[in-house]
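[AMINO ACID CHAIN]
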Amino acid sequence: MQKSVRWIERLPVARDRPVFGMAIMLAIVAAAWLLRDLADPFLPPGFPYVTFFPAVIVSSFLFGVRIGAVSALLCGLLAWYCFIPPTGFKLTTGAAFALAFYVFVVATDLVLVHWMQVANRQLAAEREVSRSLADTRELLFRELQHRVSNNLQVAAALLTMQRRELADAGERSALDEAAARLALIGRISRQLYDASGVAQPLVPFLSELGLSVIEAAGRHDVTITASGDERLRLVPDAAVPVALIVAEAVANALEHGFADGTGGRLAIAVEQDPGRGLCITVHDDGHGLPADFDLDSSTSLGLRIATTLARGQGGRFHLERCQGTRATLILPPGLSADGAATEQRGGPGDPLADSGPHLLG
């Protein structure tokens, strides 16, 4: 359908080749005259223009109003000479009435075709302007994302430089963590959004995020997998906090679950429960939590950040022993597609029409 519309917008054709247009128009007029002559024995009196009207419309539609006007003149003369009694360019009252009717009809056709082609040209020009604006918007969006990410990287680098001036090991560690988090936010902002404003699919993004955290930690002995509905997307306001929480959970597993340098496995799972909300778990098969571990009284800055970010989204974050350690983030159902969906579900044949809701931006 779109291709046919674009083809119509290119009319009239052969604007730079008038001779070609005239030749095709003459062929159309000749075909109309031949068809009318062949049909003459089968037509009742009073239909001299029955094949000439379509010839005029087609000619003007394809090659413009000027060539269409020439075809209208030729068709009118042929009809007057051959099919309006008395034939042979004899002007009677009946012939004059028939010619006046013909002039009125073809003039109306030519005006309508001309208006349509002018509207098509304006539509094509507006579409080109819209396309140019869309390209400019995408370019500006990517430039903004690039600059924001670069500024975060610069801030992280400044913190790293400031670290060199500190002698206290605790202070140096704090600046290292702050620089790492700023760099992580920069990477997240690059990956989460595109120019249309729609967030990336959640499961593939979390998989890449986990790999980035593992690579940044220099741990090549830890593997990670991510599973869940790959159509799930988060609303934009929740995307960065959730990514930071998952990154903190992965970093915590690397630091404590695999603290002695032994390798292991990490598994990220994303589930959507209509009653419970969105549930994201990060499960490692490491050493597990100490027996007296209490998240509320933990002094870990990363865990406090994760807990605070989860509460800010109306959810909760907790850790538990489960053949290792399992970090769980639960977000409320209010972030589901029922409240902020940007994709429409189809009918029974649409794969998005199943029971699994989406957290869409």
